[in-house]
Design goal:
By secondary structure, this protein is α/β, with parallel strands linked by helices. The protein has 2 domains: 57 residues; 183 residues, Vaccinia Virus protein VP39 (Rossmann fold). It is built from 9 helices and 7 strands, in the order αααβαβαββαβααβαβ. The chain has a 7-stranded mixed β-sheet, sandwiched between helices. α5 links the parallel β2 and β3. The longest helix has 31 residues. It is elongated.
């Protein structure tokens, strides 16, 4: 039995772009063949331009899908997951929270590195990523031989855990998908971290999504965090800057530290 971590680029989105492209091509051809005069040219050109846009989006989505394929050649998703998990070292019997666990990949990777720790993964598993589910996570954990892990429904913006419940907290590409004050979402996650605990949070920490993250790092230090570092992951650590640019992942970074 092999784990199935799915793909961060939903296959449905790839097909949506493809079908939209084909539909516009057909519409442009129909208007060109059946109509006459100025209207014919206007509609044919308009749908031709729209078709070109969806053609570009289809190519982009296919390239994204191939890059994030766990069993493909590039395996960027695996590199990100393993690289993030490497920052977490838990004590025997320690507990780790994976916020927005998706298919369970990050929590399972932490569990494999810390076999005597307890891992809890939470996610809302909404319709946007319908292929991800609690059952999928549990199946992947079994396939990887990770037994000290549980998964449950949860809300990243209001975590159902008391303060200082975990020895580590992790997440990957979660908060940028949630509208609102994303720095506050980070604080909500860090609220559940014990004193002396570690955190490794990977996301698209661009100014447009998060505001000034360097100021946030200073804020955490002023709050008493022992160590806080924002590590650019587009400089060859997880991806090249050129990859991050065309994938719309510019600003990807790891927020790591000790409380």
């Amino acid at each position: 039995m092999k784990p199935d971590y799915k793909n961060w680029m939903p296959k449905g989105m790839v097909y949506s772009f493809l079908f939209a492209f084909l539909g516009c091509v057909v519409a442009a051809a129909v208007f060109y063949l059946l109509l006459n005069g100025t209207l014919k040219m206007v509609l044919a050109i308009a749908f031709g331009v729209i078709a070109a846009v969806f053609c570009g989006l289809t190519i982009w989505a296919v390239c994204m899908y191939r890059a994030f394929d766990y069993s493909g050649k590039r395996q960027m998703a695996r590199q990100i997951i393993e690289g993030t998990a490497a920052y977490v070292k838990l004590p025997q019997g320690g507990k780790c929270l994976d916020v927005g666990c998706g298919s369970g990949a990050l929590g399972i990777a932490v569990g494999k590195r810390n076999p005597k720790a307890e891992i809890v993964g939470i996610d809302r598993w909404g319709k946007d990523y319908a292929s991800f589910s609690k059952n999928l996570c549990e199946g992947n954990a079994r396939a990887e031989g990770v037994t000290r892990i549980t998964f449950r429904q949860g809300d990243a913006t209001h975590l159902d855990f008391p303060d200082e419940s975990f020895d580590a907290v992790v997440s990957n590409y979660v908060y940028h998908n949630i509208p609102g004050d994303r720095q506050q979402y980070l604080l909500e996650t860090l609220r559940t971290l014990k004193k002396g605990g570690t955190f490794a949070l990977h996301d698209i920490f661009s100014r447009s999504k998060y505001g000034d993250m360097q100021a946030f790092v200073k804020k955490l230090k002023a709050m008493g965090y022992k160590q806080v570092e924002l590590i650019d992951t587009t400089n060859g650590k997880f991806m090249k800057k050129s990859e991050a640019a065309w994938m719309a992942l510019s600003g990807s970074a790891l927020l790591i530290g000790i409380k």
